[in-house]
Amino acid sequence: MKPVLALVGRPNVGKSTLFNRLTKSRDAIVADFAGLTRDRHYGNGRQGKHEYIVIDTGGFEPDATSGIYKEMAKQTRQAVAEADVVIFVVDARAGLSAQDHDIANYLRRLGKPCVLVANKAEGMTEGHQLADFYELGLGEVYPVSAAHGQGIRSLVDLALAPLNLPDEDEEEAGIDAGVTKLAVAGRPNVGKSTLINTWLGEERLVAFDMPGTTRDAITVPFERNGHRFELIDTAGLRRRGKVFEAIEKFSVVKTLQAIETCNVVLLLIDATQGVTDQDAHIAGYVLESGRAVVVAVNKWDAVDAYQRELVQRSIETRLAFLKFASMHFISAEKRQGLGPLWASILQAHKAATCKMSTPVLTRLLLEAVQFQSPKRAGMFRPKLRYAHQGGMNPPVIVIHGNSLEHVTDAYKRFLEGRFRKEFNLVGTPLRIEMKTSANPFTDKDK
Binding positions for GTP 2 (predicted)? Predict the structure, then answer.
């Protein structure tokens, strides 16, 4: 899983500016105003072959007892609990403050890996200018300038060093190609743990008629008909406004990480409640992460014919963007419909890791263009010349040609349908990328 880095410090030391640098984005609002950030803010970053998650937090006052600062402190404590490494940000120009001492005392008691960073240190070449920060007792002080991008790469290396992340070759060697990671996701109390217990034939996981019983993403090895799996029971994802407990917020992070690292997601829906907005949100996140997906409607035995018809209609409307996924109606408690479910899981994994040859893709592309040409844009019509595979899990097809920026979304869906039919891509998203060839005469002198 991706390591998690939390940015902690008093207000207006440049945490959000550093967050934007680490994530190469502008997702965090930045202004010369203390206390602008209040909630936790998550972002993805990458340096070299290593990816990581960054959490931006508001100004931290560990001893706050009331008002908005107490709520901000709760958010920061939760971010620290989620993090693998804490990056403690201080202001090199403003100097050391009593609040910095309070934060340092809190972090020392936790004993979690911590990197002390002096931000706004541009132009400070003398070491004595940062000497006061050694009073915090957190070891070496590393000067950076988030606004100017100075020292950021070294900072990431320092933050990731305590985690002993494997090299790229070691990571590839550690991946067991024969094991399929299957994450069971859904809202609270839809029967995820019950389903895994039914597969295993034992009470391996706590299954209780109370939403939120599962707190962490639990991995269980499993083998069926010669196929090896890692079953991942995730915590139920509910609407953000309904998440109150700090430990439950931590569970949400672990669930999202489990979805990103698995091969196939089994999206479980409660037949007694139908397809809710939250089911659609979870499905959207699975689609965005590019995971293969199978949809299963649990507790099918507990609804009558009228309710079954309503559920099927709600699936057609609210989950229309998952038309490529197989749909099953099951009862985990009574072991009904589980055999065909496994067949769809294996089919989805096979489709997600399908290898598509360049000659076949190019032939399908040219046949599609001959059958229906792309829409003309002004004086020019897009020219689609050849295609090749650009990745797996999810499959990516890269199409080369001229003026491809004018290819419409409708035509991309037309091409996607042709590719899906040829390679039987059931249960996996398919991404099509257009790459326009450069005009060799553009830079020529007239």
Answer: 186-193, 233-237, 298-301
Where does a domain end: 163, 193, 221? 163
Judge whether 38 is annotated as a binding position.
no
Annotated binding-site residue? 186:
yes
323 annotated as a binding-site residue? no
Per-residue pLDDT tens for 399-445? 998 888 888 899 999 999 999 999 999 999 999 999 887 655 555 55
Estimate to the nearest angstrom the gap between the alpha carbon of 214 and the chain centroid. 20
3-state DSSP: the chain helix, strand, coil percent, rounded to 5?
40, 25, 40
Q: Which of 325, 351, 377 lies at the terminal end of a domain, its last residue?
A: 351
251 assigned binding-site residue: no
Shared-domain flag, residues 183 and 312: yes
Each residue of 205-259: pLDDT tens digit? Answer: 444 344 443 334 567 778 888 888 888 877 655 444 444 444 334 446 666 777 8
With beta carbons less than 8 A apart as the criterion, state whether 437 and 402 touch.
Answer: yes
Please indicate if the annotation marks 122 as binding a ligand.
yes
Same domain, yes or no, for 346 and 386? no
Range of the domain at 400: 358-436
- Is 11 within any annotated ligand binding site? yes
153 labeled binding residue: no
Strands 383-391, 396-402: pairing kind: antiparallel
Query: Which phi and psi angles does 328 have, rounded to 5°?
Result: -135, 150
Does residue 306 sit in the same domain as residue 241? yes
The verdict on whether residue 10 carries a ligand-binding annotation is yes
CATH of the domain at 291: 3.40.50.300
The answer to whether the annotation marks 193 as part of a ligand binding site is: yes
